[in-house]
Specification:
Helices cover 73% and strands 0% of the residues. The protein is rod-shaped, with a radius of gyration of 33 Å. Helix 1 runs antiparallel to helix 3, helix 1 packs parallel to helix 4 and helix 3 runs parallel beside helix 5. The chain starts with a helix and ends with a helix. The protein is built from five helices and no strands.
């Protein structure tokens, strides 16, 4: 588990940095779409006879000539412009938030992996009963093999607590460069899970210490 966690820690550091970087393809595409919408709106305003742009129609070899103002054409152009503005706003909202959605998806997937790793560490604690270390209780055919003495089990539990603390810090890397509420909430969930699981392990370490003191008192 410790070796796998080292690999996961290095991968998490690289992935968190990669997710924090901007996505140039998405931003370039969004900029091109914004320019296309602005150019289309300008053309519709011009074709509708909008004031201030009608001089574009009079550009010729003799210089600038102002075109006649057409109220009906302007009304038709304004209607098309309003429809374009509504559709364009929706498209821009989708494109501008596409990068944030992609980053959120990748981050939540990575946090799910860290959460699963924390549960795996906790699963290994099911057979680590500290009360059986200093007591010679009877076993059954289904009892797991317990080969650790008190010192080894204490160190093992200590290492597991440290790994859970490290998982919580790795999760915090994803929230270091973002203010996305969903990501921050997911990171807090992972940190809270690691804290709770680590507290259970420290309870076992406390029990081992208490049993050790009791055994020393009887001796």
């Amino acid at each position: 588990m410790a070796t796998g966690l080292v690999v996961e820690a290095r991968r998490t550091a690289d992935q968190a940095e990669a997710i924090a970087r901007p996505f140039p393809v998405t931003r370039i595409f969004t900029g091109l779409v914004i320019l296309a919408i602005a150019a289309t709106a300008l053309e519709l305003w011009w074709l509708g006879g909008g004031p201030g742009l009608d001089w574009l129609a009079g550009m010729g070899p003799r210089g600038l000539q102002r075109a006649a103002f057409d109220p009906l054409g302007l009304a038709a152009g304004l209607e098309a412009l309003v429809n374009l503005a509504i559709l364009g706003s929706l498209a821009l909202w989708f494109l501008i938030n596409s990068e944030a959605r992609a980053k959120r998806k990748r981050t939540l997937q990575a946090l799910h992996g860290l959460r699963s790793l924390a549960h795996v560490i906790d699963m290994h604690q099911l057979t680590k009963d500290p009360t059986l270390i200093l007591s010679a209780g009877s076993t059954t055919a289904a009892s797991p093999t317990r080969s650790m003495d008190q010192f080894q089990l204490t160190r093992y539990l200590d290492y597991c607590a440290e790994m859970l603390a490290l998982i919580g810090k790795l999760a915090a890397l994803y929230a270091a460069r973002t203010q996305d509420p969903q990501i921050v909430a997911a990171v807090n969930d992972v940190e809270g899970l690691c804290t709770d699981l680590g507290r259970k392990i420290w309870q076992k370490i406390t029990i081992l210490s208490a049993l050790d003191e009791r055994a020393a008192g009887k001796a």
